[in-house]
Amino acid sequence: MINKKLVLEDTIVRREDISTTIIDGELGMMSEEKGKYYTLDFIGTRVWELIEKPIKVDDLIIALMKEYEVDRATCEVDLLELLDKLLKEELIKLV
Amino acid sequence: MTNYSGNKINYYSIYGIKIATELVLNELVKMDGESDLIISSGKVPEFLKGTTQSYAFFQTKENEFLARIKNVGSFYVINGNEIIYDLYNDAEFISVKMYLYGFLLPVVLMQRGQFSLHGSCIEIEGKSIIIAGHSGAGKSSLGIAFRLAGYKLIADDLIAFNEDWLEGLYVHYGFPVQKITSDTAKHLKIKTMGLEKIPEDDKYLIPLKDEFLMTPVPLVALFEITLHEDETKGEVVLEELMGGEKLRCIIANTYNVQMIGTMGLAQKHFKYGTSLTKRIKVFRITRPIHGFSLEQQMALIVNAIKKTTF
Hints:
The complex is a heterodimer. Chain A is built from three helices and six strands, in the order ββββαβααβ. By secondary structure, chain A is of the alpha+beta class. In chain A, β3 and β4 form a beta hairpin. The longest helix of chain A is centred in the last third of the chain and has 17 residues, at about 70-90. The model of chain A has no long low-confidence stretch (mean pLDDT about 90). Chain B folds into two domains: about 10-110, no CATH class; about 115-305, Rossmann fold. Chain B is globular and about 55 Å long. Chain B is of the alpha+beta class. The mean pLDDT of chain B is about 90. Chain B is built from seven helices and 18 strands. In chain B, the strands form three sheets. Chain B has a nine-stranded mixed β-sheet, covered by helices on one side. Chain B has a six-stranded mixed β-sheet with strand order 12-10-11-16-18-17.
């Protein structure tokens, strides 16, 4: 279990061995290794698309702020919370 | 034991499985001599060799499953087409049957790459629906209430689907029996006298006749019954689930979902659950914790089926 808290300078990427599916625009995921199922909401699903290739957390925030009407502070807090969870469940990895 | 018929082979059909066995399984629908699963008495291995996953009372590996059940016996399930059993002398036959129907047949289906849901399947207006939910949410009571109101039951407890969904998705019939707890029976004023009781389980078996439907009916929706967290909330609420919530509901209501990973079938199950999620509508019914709301729940379901285009 990884309990690291991500910072803006970290570069992350989604893991390739996670099965995914889109249902009504939302992502369902399964980790074979953990035998666990996950779902992401609409914005989480967009984040998953954006981390297909390695990206710096800071750049991810900038990308999301361009797409959604959200202030920097909220975006940063919400995104880091989501990414920490994804990292903890080993659905993404640090590059 | 009087539950064997000697050399005579009996043929039954349940969950789309055609069984040939020397056991007398009176609850099941009888068939003519055709089978894709043989259930017979024989020598069950002590343990599985090679790479296996071991748990308290069962062991699995690809296409093999071994279970040792206290006071009942040992069972060996192979390739989705054979069950070998070795029963304890004092095993109660009703317990053997309950493990067979509720534990081993689902394993047979899983070995065939088919995954079942946990719930009841009922026909409404020429379509079929699944009633699901956690134990205690009241799905059995609702299933029984529907039957008492004249609706037909297709399957109770285990919901197994047909194989080729191109010809339409439907639920295979189970067996013409509905399980009922003594609490539910009291609540719905059903007499349990004379009904067969499952040992070590507070459940009775109600045999069904005309209330049981064996013809395939297109499956259109699943209704998950949940309870209001707030005790003071009195209304019954119906909402349609979409996206991640919908998928989670299907996955969570999979029969013996925790066993699938141990059999190395998680990936297959995820794909199966996804296809199912895309094929049917999923609704959640939230009901008050206290009071009688079965009538209201039934009305909401029937109404949803009538007014929704599938």
